[in-house]
Amino acid sequence: MKFIHTSDWHIGRQFHNVSLLEDQMHVLNQLIEYIKNEDVDALVIAGDIYDRSLPPANAVELLDNVLKSICMDLNIPIILIPGNHDSAERVRFGAKQMKESGLHIIGNLNEVIEPVLIEVKGVEVAFYGIPYCEPLMVRDTFDVEVKSFDDAHTYLVDEIKNVMSDQQVNVLISHCFIDGAAESDSERPLQIGGADRVSYQPCVEFDYVALGHLHSPQYKGMEHIRYSGSIMKYSFSEQNQKKGITLVEVDKTGLVSQTHLPLKPLRDMRVIEDELETILEQGKVDPNNDDYLLVRLTDKHAILDPMGKLRAVYPNVLHLEKPGMLETNTSQLNQESLKQGELDMFKDFYSQIAGQEMSEEQSKLVSGLIDGLTK
Fold it and tell me: Which pTM value belongs to this model?
């Protein structure tokens, strides 16, 4: 049996006030193609389907279309849990009715010991889901004394292990932060100061653990305890991450293989660092000039409207940094070097406005004016 593990779609997300819905649709269509081409038997979504608890209407419409394509058109069952960005109550609305169409939403803590059973070619897989939850929710639901995220998660995992059978392949789906795993800037902290971390050790006995929340594809503790990562980059800190989904194959004995399947973005997210003129020349021949960019200018002189110039060749520059302008010379400047610096600055200003260099006669005129002002 084969299933795909994915998470952290964050449908409806905006980045620097730019909607990413078109980009998300692009990669989700690739997910659907993988389901067709890899002969997949199920899809697991480990939380953060939406980017916020009250998603915009166009985000709901996109998710509806994707779920219809997978569940109804391809007849592939989906097992999903809410993440910390989702509203569990809204996500699980109509869950009982949707089971009939193959959409299994595990959004209630009381359902964690009730697996979704899927049998393919004699292999029965039990999918157990732990939706994102805080210790107080576990304490109130089960009337147990848990003080931390780790206590709460361990309690729920132990409850599942008490009922799971070794005659089945057992898969755990959880939206949590495994202690020691690598995080990114785009993830919303669950708690301040590391109190949100949970241990991987209680999860070791499962045949596969499908995790959500962290955006970098990785495993922690053991290779079968894995984050698929987000479907696309959601911060410039993720520029070097290889986004994708995880194809998992199991048989009666347990895990057979886990394979990273890449997702190609409609627009990549990159950081470019150089002088303005170099970047502008590069942009004229860059085949991916519509990528989302953070630009760091190394120029040490003042530049008029750098963002406008950059967006003429890179229309999706979203953030501009000028670290070169922050470098200061702490040595004492004499009057002559001060006057020369002022003249150079005016020359730069003139060339950017007029599109040509100042003539020798103009330079002499401006130099005389500066001398008159500084006396």
Answer: 0.83
